[in-house]
């Protein structure tokens, strides 16, 4: 049971205002209890003499003390309660684990090597005389847009 990573704690801190404004608790409590993220006692303590914004803040504080699997379960609870946009827009975009890393650069490099091998084996090819080595690939508009989005989210 690994405690919540510093990266995810930072997300809960940095995105707190957005999370408090976005999360709706009404239908979320049963999901949280069924995943054992909160007990009935935790729920009563969080709800006691607080408005909904304070309750969400208290829930986020409670979540920051929990484990990685509880964070993932919390994301699942939001999705089950039709609040999946919060997960995709706020919680997960900057919380990608190393196991979910982008394999596009690896794939590009692999195919570039394969194409270079094939290109090098065709010595009678007239184009090979002009350019014996494959050049750098131009970035697609989608890749450029993705880089801009990531930079904007990081806040430059």
TrEMBL record:
Source organism phylogeny: Eukaryota, Metazoa, Spiralia, Lophotrochozoa, Annelida
Name by which UniProt lists this protein: CARD domain-containing protein
Superkingdom classification of source: Eukaryota
Domain CARD: start-end pairs: 4-93
One biological process term in Gene Ontology: regulation of apoptotic process
Native organism: Capitella teleta (Polychaete worm)
Pfam families on file: CARD
CDD domains: CARD (cd01671)
